[in-house]
Design brief:
This protein is an alpha+beta fold. Helix content is about 25%, strand content about 25%.
């Protein structure tokens, strides 16, 4: 990989024989675990300005209609997260001279609080071509990482590393984006069809909130809309407003329509029925056919799934059970995806597993060899397992001497369901028929007989490790403990996918490790901690919510603990703050544990049932300043390794759903400034 220094440039053709389509990755880490940023892309003409506001791509406008730009979202890494962007340079309009890749912070945080700021550019197979690290970030709230630009019909890359203290608003203004302040924006009806296109910023936080392109804002409430408002979405969290546009995409309501059935035993007819299959092979064949057919018929969905694999935005066709020659006997991959753009074909073979069946290395190796010989671009594996960095699901050998490179990619069924749910519940698709097709697909994937439920087995090491912890015979260095840690990571990633799809927000596991940490040694350390403490722990950050969701499975006590730390308001009297917290938690479970946090330690604690009549019991007896509160729920842990009603996986899902739905969703009301009471008998909280 070619390492770049600030200000340096390099031609992409000198790094790869095929740089017509590239992936850009922006990554960072945070030792505190709570740092993050949003990526954005701007297309500039020869004047160095955008042609219109539609040339700005960000979280509310993630893809270009011509497929030249696609924001692929955040991917968890061993040290934090990486935002990936797909750029099809052959589809970039000829009057676009450069592509600027930037990122911005929100709230009051700066890039100086993040570690290991880095940008990479990879070819369509995922092989890294160049890297650029930023080491001088301090008070900036927006950064231009780099730009790709044309020079004599060739695309080149320049390492920029320019920061802005004025946030994304200042950066956007420099490139010709129209920006209005909040007061002006509030005077415009964002929900009408006659609203003029505009871009809104939040000056206090320095974030760009709105842009012209017709992309609906993500839905953040958990209340199902009525059918009449199915094509509209409420404004998302953190002050983001939905775009003002006359063209609205179609989303479907969660609320079921009134049934005309005579009894509850009647089942509605489905486009993709799921009968009781007699064999796993039948499940695989049907699941593959159902998925591939919907991908071909719903362009937004097909592109969403294949863009991350280097596929261009073009006409897609899909095939199942294709016979291809290989040695003495032909091989039959489960599916083939072909995308045509400008007379060129991109092709991928698909190997599918359902019902928890593992991928077979020999099978995948055969398909890699076939793809190499036939000039195909990729092999895509699809199964219930969730892939982890440094822990491949299958080991295959790739002949580095061959000129043509074939990429091996993996999808989990949980990712497929997540993308379908994001489109039909939050982002919208082009027409109602496409929305209905995606809803039928989602119903099929979630049916108990489909075998497409995602990760659903903690593996054969689960029971021996639990028994070893109970008997206190599990020793550090045990390989089975490492296997359990890997399964736990897969489960947490699936929890993030499910929660993110439900809320329409990004949800990612928090990694507090520094860049360069070896995945195997990190997991070995976590396994040793499991042997010593008997606990599995994880943290999840959900975009637009308060604090980091902590999840702990105590294998010794058989209990699951979900918790979040809530900072105290910067001003207000202690008793007023305590009363407000209890009032905000009016709908929370009575067994919720609330603990006061003070500088250097923990304060009073109690269940919500006991604190409701006496909120003053949360105040420290010595009058110490309150820094925040810790909210915790406990739940019994399932014992079996699977996802059955009594299984461990089901119990984790239920614990997270209960805590988020009954506690976290109400905490936004606590964020508002607490009014000072006129009584002089209470002392205000010391701000620090």
């Amino acid at each position: 990989m070619h390492e770049m220094s600030k200000g340096a440039n390099v031609g992409l053709a000198s790094l790869s024989e095929d740089a017509s389509s590239v992936f850009v990755g922006l990554s960072w880490s945070s030792a505190a675990g709570d740092g993050d940023a949003d990526v954005s892309v701007l297309l500039l003409d020869n004047s160095g300005k955008v042609r219109s506001d539609a040339d700005f791509y960000f979280y509310n406008h993630p893809a270009a209609a011509d497929g030249s730009v696609q924001l692929l979202g955040k991917t968890p890494t061993e040290n934090g997260s990486e935002d990936r962007i797909g750029l099809d340079l052959t589809a970039v309009p000829p009057d676009v001279n450069s592509i600027v890749v930037a990122a911005s912070q929100y709230g009051t945080t700066t890039f100086g609080a993040l570690d290991d700021l880095r940008m990479t550019v990879s070819d369509r197979s995922g092989e890294a071509l160049l890297g650029f690290s930023i080491t001088d970030a301090t008070v900036e709230t927006a950064f231009i990482f780099g730009e790709l630009y044309r020079r004599n019909e060739e695309w080149k890359f320049r390492a920029v590393g320019q920061g802005y203290e004025t946030g994304l608003a200042g950066l956007a203004t420099d490139f010709g984006i129209d920006v209005v302040d909040d007061e002006e924006a509030d005077g415009t009806d964002a929900g009408t069809n006659d609203a003029a296109p505009s871009t809104t910023t939040e000056p206090a936080a320095g974030r760009l909130l709105d842009a012209v392109p017709a992309q609906p804002a993500p839905r953040t409430d958990r209340t199902a809309p009525t059918p009449d408002d199915a094509a509209t979405t409420p404004a998302p969290a953190r002050g983001r407003r939905g775009p003002r546009t006359a063209k609205k995409k179609v989303t479907l309501p969660k609320a079921a329509k009134k049934s005309l059935a005579e009894s509850d035993t009647w089942k509605p007819a489905r486009l993709f029925p799921v009968p009781s299959y007699k064999s796993d092979r039948e499940r695989e064949v049907r699941a593959t056919s159902v998925l591939l057919s919907v991908m071909a018929e719903v362009p937004e969905f097909g592109r969403r799934l294949t863009a991350g694999f280097g596929a261009p935005a073009g006409r897609m066709q899909t095939f199942s059970e294709v016979s291809l020659p290989h040695g003495d006997s032909p091989k039959r991959p489960d599916g083939v995806i072909r995308v045509e753009r400008a007379g060129k074909l991109w092709t991928a073979l698909v190997e599918t597993k359902t019902n928890g069946n593992p991928l077979k290395a020999e099978q995948v190796q055969n398909y890699m060899d076939i793809a190499t010989r036939r000039g195909y671009e990729a092999v895509i594996t699809l199964s219930n397992d969730v892939a982890l960095e440094g822990s491949p699901l299958v080991d295959v050998k790739i002949d580095g001497r061959r000129k043509h490179k074939v990429a091996l990619w993996h999808l989990s069924w949980a990712e497929v369901a997540h993308q379908a749910q994001m489109l039909i519940r939050h982002e919208g698709v082009g027409n109602a028929a496409h929305a209905w097709l995606l809803e039928e697909l989602l119903h099929y994937l979630q049916h108990e007989n489909s075998g497409c439920h995602g990760f659903q087995n903690m593996g054969p090491s689960w029971v021996p490790v639990r028994n070893g912890i109970d008997a206190e015979t599990l020793c550090q260095g045990d390989r089975q403990a490492v296997d359990v840690v890997e399964s736990w990571e897969r489960l947490i990633r699936q929890v993030c996918l499910r929660l993110g799809g439900e809320l329409g927000q990004k949800a990612l596991p928090v990694q507090r490790a520094k860049r360069g940490t070896d995945p195997e040694s990190r997991r070995a350390e976590l396994a040793d901690r499991l042997c010593e403490e008997g606990r599995l722990s994880a943290e999840v950050r959900v975009d637009g919510t308060h604090g980091i969701l902590a999840i702990t499975a105590d294998l010794r006590t058989g209990k699951l603990r979900t918790s979040v730390d809530l900072p105290a308001p910067e001003s207000g009297y202690p008793l007023t703050i305590a009363k407000r917290l209890v009032r905000v938690l009016a709908e929370a479970p009575a067994d919720l544990h609330v603990q006061t946090l003070v500088d250097g330690g923990n304060g009073p604690r109690g269940t919500l049932e006991r604190l409701r009549p006496e909120p003053g019991d949360l105040l420290p007896k010595d009058g110490a300043p309150i820094s925040g509160f810790r909210l915790t729920l406990f739940k019994g842990m399932g014992g079996s390794r699977g996802s059955t009603e009594s299984g461990f996986i089901r119990s984790v899902d239920d614990a997270v759903d209960r805590f988020y739905g009954t506690v976290v969703t109400h905490l936004g009301q606590f964020d508002r400034r607490t009014p000072r009471q006129r009584s002089g008998m209470e002392q205000p909280v010391a701000s620090g």
